[in-house]
Amino acid sequence: MIDLTSLTSAVGELDEKKVMSMLQEFVAGAPETEEAAQAITACQKGMEKVGQRFETGEYFVGDLIFAGELLTEAMEVLKPIIGSAARQKVGKIVLGTVQGDLHNIGKNIFKSMAEAAGFTVYDLGINVSPEAFLDKIKEVQPDILGLSGVLTMAVESMKKTVDLVKEAGLREHIKITIGGACASYEAMQVSGADAWSTNAAETVNVCLGWVGQHQE
């Protein structure tokens, strides 16, 4: 089993060589899917440390960009292991970072994990308007809508999107989850979503439960 604490520290310190070495050795040992999910959570915690260091002025914008690239690289190493349990498509998710927000790291982590779990994910990207979400929902008729955001103002965009889905008469046919740093129980209540989480692995399990599946 990989040392999760050390992995978190390595990501937080932006030690690419150590992170990749640890993950490659981990994957070579043919870990269980749940262990791989724990490794991703450890990487997420490392990203939280990066964010904290950015806020205190220890890290700069360039460091945030590098951290995002490092996390994407880490996900590519882990993705085959996470996907080992996915045998068939289990459902469809429309996903995006809501209007007014340009953050995509957490969204991309969730997308990779959801696809590995068997979902077809339609990622609309960042700064997505409520109308764009609705158009895609009408087009692909997904089981789940995933709204991501980091900024506090993103909650209002989430609410506008959920309200538009209601107005279109489609709310009863779709489950909605919110994620990102702005996500909380209160944000879920305000937006009208069904679930919330700041943990990608946890959100994937909630989605699997909604479509009658379970994480092996």
TrEMBL record:
Keywords: Cobalt, Metal-binding. Pfam families: B12-binding (PF02310), B12-binding_2 (PF02607). InterPro entries: Cbl-bd_cap, Cobalamin-bd, Cobalamin-bd_sf, Met_Synthase/Corrinoid, Meth_synthase_dom. SUPFAM superfamilies: Cobalamin (vitamin B12)-binding domain (SSF52242), Methionine synthase domain (SSF47644). Residues 1-90 form the B12-binding N-terminal domain. It comes from the Bacteria. Residues 90-216 form the B12-binding domain. This is Cobalamin B12-binding domain-containing protein. It comes from Blautia celeris. The lineage of its organism: Bacteria, Bacillati, Bacillota, Clostridia, Lachnospirales.
